[in-house]
Specification:
It is an enzyme of class 3 (hydrolase). Its cofactor is Zn(2+). With 132 residues, the protein is an alpha+beta fold. It is built from four helices and seven strands. It has helices spanning 3-15, 55-65, 88-97, 118-121; strands at 27-33, 38-42, 44-45, 52-53, 71-78, 103-108, 111-117. The strands form two sheets. A five-stranded mixed sheet has the order 2-1-5-6-7.
């Protein structure tokens, strides 16, 4: 199976588990790490809005908890007609574990709509290498 298809399947499965009673906007994300393992996360909202967790942050936490340290690719899945790209905070979270050329696949219910590199979504970014 194509790695992007695997990511899409994982994101779709976890999107259904999102806790989104306030926005009713469920998002799923799946990461392929440097060892080929897939880690998924969904958005988790909180009554003390906007306290909550984005799907991408959940997937990153799952990756780190599972022993992964580098994002080889990530897929973000949301409903609706507009592209559901990572928010600014999640772009920076992704940057912590990804290279500028890391693919970020943006998907809708029927599949990938567009693929960006991290550098396209977060140009001239600050990351761990700036602290070396």
């Amino acid at each position: 199976m194509d790695p992007t298809d695997t990511l899409f399947s994982a994101a779709r499965a976890v999107q259904a588990r999102a806790h989104a009673p306030y926005s009713r906007f469920r998002v799923g994300a799946a990461i392929l790490d440097e060892a080929g393992a897939v880690h998924a996360g969904c958005n988790v909202e909180n009554a003390a809005y906007p306290v909550g967790t984005c799907a991408e942050a959940g997937a990153i936490a799952a990756m780190v908890a599972g022993g992964g340290r580098r994002i080889a690719a990530i897929l973000v899945l949301g409903d609706g007609e507009a592209l559901v790209t990572p928010c600014g905070a999640c772009r920076q979270r992704i940057r912590e574990f990804a290279a500028p050329d890391t693919p970020i696949h943006v998907a809708g219910p029927r599949g990938v709509r567009r693929t960006f590199t991290l550098d396209e979504l977060l140009p001239a970014s600050f990351g761990p290498d700036n602290l070396a």
